[in-house]
C-alpha cells in the first residue's frame, strides 16, 4: 500500500453541547451516575452497543439527534448540572489539603503509581482481574482525596481477551483490537502539536513509544503505546496484549513499563518523589531511576540506590509462584548487557539485585526481589498476606526473625462510588447526608445504618436483584444465540432465576487455588438445595481462566456440564466474559457472596468487599481480607485457615462445611419471615456487615493509609536525600560501606544476667532458676566493636516465649544502654533489663543491629549479630 495520510475526525457537537466533550474525557462520570445518565439519555441502546463508552457514543450518534438535544431544555439543564459538578469537584478542597503543609503540594511531592494493568471501566479493557481493578480504584480514591499522584502503565492494542464458551463448555479466547481514538483517552502532544514519544534501548535496536493520557478526576494516567510506525513489526507487538506471549515478551513488556515509564515521566517534566510499584512487573523502574540519578548527580551506584530506596514503595500481591515473574540469567544478560556499565556494575552484581541467594549464579532473576531490594517501603495487601509475605521473603534478611522482616501490611479496599448501586447510594444520601461518600472511612457515619428502615433497605436490595435477574436472562440468551441454539430452545433463558429466591454469587479469576468447583463436590446435596420448591437456592458463576491455564478452563467446563447433566440450567448459570460491567450487576444483586480459596493462597480479594457494601453477606474460607472482615453476625466462615497436605481431603472437608452452613444457617435465616414478609434476621446481618465492613474495606481508607504510612515519609526522605548534591544519600552509602567492612569482626564476648535483689556475684542459671511473674532480669553485655563507636550500633535484649524447638517465638525487644568501655581495645559494656510479664517457658538473648538516624528500618541493611554468633549480612 502506498503511504497513507491519517487524520482524526471528532464529533461535531453543537455549541450548547460542548461540555459533553470535557465530561466524556474525564472518567469522573464512571463513579457519578448523574453524569453517566447523560449519555444514556442520548441513546440508551447505542450506549449499550458502545459498551458504555461515551467517546464512541458521541462519535456514533446521528448529527440530527445531537441538534435535537441542543434544543432540549431538560437535557441542557442536566448537562449544565453535570458540568458544574465536575468543575466543582476539580476545584474543591480535598482531604490531602487538610493533612499537608503547602510544601507537600509542590512538584517535589508527586507520587508515580506503576502497574501492568488498570481496571477503570469496561470501556477501557486494560485489565485482567483483581490487580488491575485495585489499581483503578486506587487512582479513583487518590483523585477523591486529592493525592498528588500520576499513574503509569501500558496501552494494550488488544487488551485482555474476551471469553466465550464452546458448546462443550470449553473456554475460548478472542482478542478485539482497541480503537484508541474512540476511547476516553487522549494522545499527549508537545507545544507544536506533535506526539510525545520516548525511546527505550533493546538488543539491536531502540524501541519508541507514544504517550497517551487518561484523566481520572484529578489524576492523570499515562500509558505507553509501541504500536507505531517508527518501530519494527515485532517491537510494535510489545504493547499488543496484556499478559500475552511467552517469557521473552513478558520481559520486553516489563522493560517498557519500568524503564519506559520512567523515561515517559522524564519527558513530561515529572520528577516523582515516590515511585509505587504495584506488584513486581514494574520493578525495572528502579534501575532506570538509579541510572538517571547517577547521570544527573554524578553519583555512584551505591549512592544512587540509597536515594532510590528512600522514595520507592512496593506492594506485593500474590504468594502464587506463577504471579511472581522471574527470568533466566541468560535472558537478563541479553537485555541488560549494555545497561550494566551505565550503572557501574558487572553482570554478577547486577543479577544479585534480583536473587535471593546472591552467590548462586544459576538462580533466576526475580522481579519481586528486585522490587524489594530497591525499596524501603513494602507491604502485603492484608494482615494475613503480610505474615505470608514476611515468611516467603525472609531469606532476604538472614538472621532476622520472621515477624521483624520489614514488610508491612495495608489491607486492600474498593472504591465505593464505583461499585455501589444507585439504590443504596440514594438511601445513603437520604440518611447519611449528601456528602457521605467523601467521609466513607469515618466509622461514625456508619452508625446511621440503623436509621434506614428495614423495609426500605430490603426493597432497594430486591430491586437490585431484579436487575441482576433481568441482566442474566439477556446475557444467557445472547450466549445461546451465539452458539447457534435452536430458536425454540431459547425460551428457557427467559425463565432463568427467581427474583425471590436466595441467590449465591461466585465470580473471580478461575485460578485453581480459588476452587470454583468446590461447591460441586457433593452433587446430591447441591441439587437438593437448588430444587427445594419451598426454600430454593440459585447460583450464578462468572470468571475467566488464563489462556494457558488448562486446569482453570476445566473447572469452567465442569460447571457447565454440571448444570446440564442435572437439568438445573435455570438455577445454576455461568455468565461468559466476566468484566467490570458483569461484576457490577453481580455484587449489587446477590444475597450471598461465596469465596472459597485454599488458605493461605488468597492475598486479599476485593469482590466480597464490593458485595458487602451492597448488602450481600459473605460466606468465605478463612483467608485474605475475610480474616479481618469477618464478624459472627455479619457473615459466615468456612474452617479456621487450616492447611492440609492432602488437598483432595481438604476440598472434601471444606465443601461439606459449605453445605452445612447453607443448609443449617443461610437458607433458614433467609426464609425466616415476619408477619410483614420481611427477613428481619437477615436484614439485621446485612446492617451489621455494612456497618463493620464498608468504612474499613474501601480505597479511601487504603489510600489514606498509604499516604500517611508510606507516601509522606517517603517524600520527606527522598527530598532530604537528594538535596545538596545528594549529601545525605552519599553519607548513608559511605556509612553502610564502612559498617559492612568491619561487621564480620564484631563479637558479643560476654553476657551476664542477674535477678534483681539477688546477690551481685550470684550467677544466673536459667535451667535451675524458677522466677515469678514480675521478676526483673538485669543484663550486661560486653561487645567487641572494632572500627566503630558504640553510637553506631543498637545492642538489644530479645526475649519472649520459647517454643518446643528452643526458639524464641515472636520476641520483644528491649534496648540496652552503653555504660562504658573495659579499657580493652574496641570493647564496650551495655546494660539493660527486662521484666518477666508472662508465665511459662521464657528466654532471652542479646543481639546487635546497626543504628543510624537515616535508616527507615534497622533490619534494612541485612546486618545482625546474635549472641554466640558472628556478623552476618544478606549482602543486598
* Spans where pLDDT lies below 50 across 5 or more residues: none
| Distinct helical segment count | 28
Whole-number count of domains = 4
Fraction of residues in helix:
25-40%
Structural class: alpha/beta
What characteristic shape results from the CA principal axes? globular
**CATH homologous superfamily (4th level) name of the largest domain:** Glycogen Phosphorylase B
Radius of gyration: 30 Å
Largest sheet: 10 strands, mixed
- How much strand content do the residues show? 15-25%
Tell me the span between the first and last alpha carbons: 54 Å
CATH architecture of the largest domain: 3-Layer(aba) Sandwich
Q: The CATH topology of the largest domain, please? A: Rossmann fold
What top-tier CATH class of the largest domain fits best? Alpha Beta
Number of strands: 29
Mean pLDDT across every amino acid position: 92
